[in-house]
Amino acid sequence: MEPSPLVRPRSFVVRGRKTEAQTRAIEELWPSFGVDFDGSLLDLDAIFGRTAPRVVEIGFGNGENLLTLAERHPDRDFLGIEVHGAGIGRVLGAIRDRGLANIRIVRHDAVEVFERGLPGGSVDEILVFFPDPWPKARHHRRRLIQPEVARLLVRALAPEGVLRLATDWEPYAEHMIEVLDAEPGLVNLAGAAHFVPRPDDRPVTKFERRGERLGHAIFDLAYRPAR
């Protein structure tokens, strides 16, 4: 029996307009690098045409992190999940321009993709970098990291997989660590209630640079499945 869809507010609002170049990139390149998600289980080997370590980035924005990591690690496959057309168009154009073959894009709500599309234990790394913090108290329920979502992330992770997160919004960092430390299927790699040092391999994105300009501290978290 299929799981019942999670009933929760969306953690995103679609904003922004695509440029002509971004629109053209989507029209021309989506058949090669886009994944049309219809609620069915995804065959990742068929999608990428090989078997390799799999990394999923939730909400890749303008794609700085996704593109840089895919370029650095051609031996890994990267599935980017995003709803904003401008970022998708930018990434598709960059995939073509940089000659990358190890990125595929899903334009859909990430929670639904994890709920219905990703086989259990199929992902080696999940990245959630600088998600919308929804700072107003009345919007906190829209935050992506919630107990029910944490359970979906755990299910998708391979036994030796890693969940990595980062934010420049301290109240959201505290919320993340509270939710994820309480999830019995996860182990905080820094120890309970602690953040990890910034990973050397994590590219600096515009969101991080903006946060630093505003004087915000950057908080990194890392979890493995409990054994």
UniProtKB/TrEMBL annotation:
S-adenosyl-L-methionine binds at residues 57, 82, 109, 132. PROSITE patterns: SAM_MT_TRMB. It comes from the Bacteria. The keyword Transferase applies. InterPro entries: SAM-dependent_MTases_sf, tRNA_(Gua-N-7)_MeTrfase_Trmb, tRNA_methyltr_TrmB_bact. Coiled coil: none annotated. One of its GO terms (cellular component) is tRNA methyltransferase complex. It holds the Pfam family Methyltransf_4. SUPFAM superfamilies: S-adenosyl-L-methionine-dependent methyltransferases (SSF53335). Its EC number is 2.1.1.33. Keywords: Methyltransferase, S-adenosyl-L-methionine, Transferase, tRNA processing. The keyword tRNA processing applies. Substrate binds at residues 136, 168, 205-208. It catalyses: guanosine(46) in tRNA + S-adenosyl-L-methionine = N(7)-methylguanosine(46) in tRNA + S-adenosyl-L-homocysteine. Pathway: tRNA modification; N(7)-methylguanine-tRNA biosynthesis. One of its GO terms (molecular function) is tRNA (guanine(46)-N7)-methyltransferase activity. Catalyzes the formation of N(7)-methylguanine at position 46 (m7G46) in tRNA. NCBIfam families: tRNA (guanosine(46)-N7)-methyltransferase TrmB. Belongs to the class I-like SAM-binding methyltransferase superfamily. TrmB family. This is tRNA (guanine-N(7)-)-methyltransferase. It comes from Leifsonia soli. The gene is trmB.
